[in-house]
């Protein structure tokens, strides 16, 4: 090695001293004719493992926090079905939104909470006979939410709503549903003197 090459070599070694020190490479004992595999170095392998963990964590977080996920996830929907002689009006919707379809309602979860809506159910021919039902479904993230139905009020007060519920599924991608069956009770009893 001549003086010119030696001067260039020292400039390169000074330039590479810090990054190579971070990788744990000692230039004094370094063999230039040896093939260097930086990808197998413990520091690089440790960093790549950390990077893989970060990527997986970010992917899982993106699944959980996707705001418009209900467009992809059917389990974020709650359907309310009515038999032919009954209809319903929307009283309020606390969380999410509700759309009326032909013969049923579709409640959609919001970005953080599951659907929580109140409907007034009554027969077509007798709107004075009604019940007010509040339907709520827990948020669907990686599992379908549980469904809760509460009868808030009724006219007459002894009137009871009969319904069935069926939870949705995240993995099978289908929505939960509440199916209204009929009214029971509600017959005014007359006491004879």
Keywords for this entry:
193 residues, Mutm (Fpg) Protein, Chain: A, domain 2, five-stranded mixed beta sheet, 34% strand, disordered C terminus
Give the CATH topology of the largest domain: Mutm (Fpg) Protein, Chain: A, domain 2
Number of helices: 2
N- and C-termini, Cα separation: 126 Å
Query: What is the arithmetic mean of pLDDT?
Result: 75
Low-confidence stretches: 67-72, 188-193
Please bin the fraction of helical residues.
10-25%
Total strands = 9
CATH architecture of the largest domain: Sandwich
Q: How are the strands of the largest sheet arranged?
A: 3-4-1-9-8
Number of domains as seen in the coordinates:
2
* Dominant shape: rod-shaped
CATH class categorisation of the largest domain: Mainly Beta
User: What is the alpha-carbon Rg in Å?
Assistant: 33 Å
Broad structural category? alpha+beta
* Main sheet specs: 5 strands, mixed
Order of helices and strands: HHEEEEEEEEE
β-sheet strand percentage: 25-35%
Transmembrane segments: 55-82
Keywords: Membrane, Transmembrane, Transmembrane helix
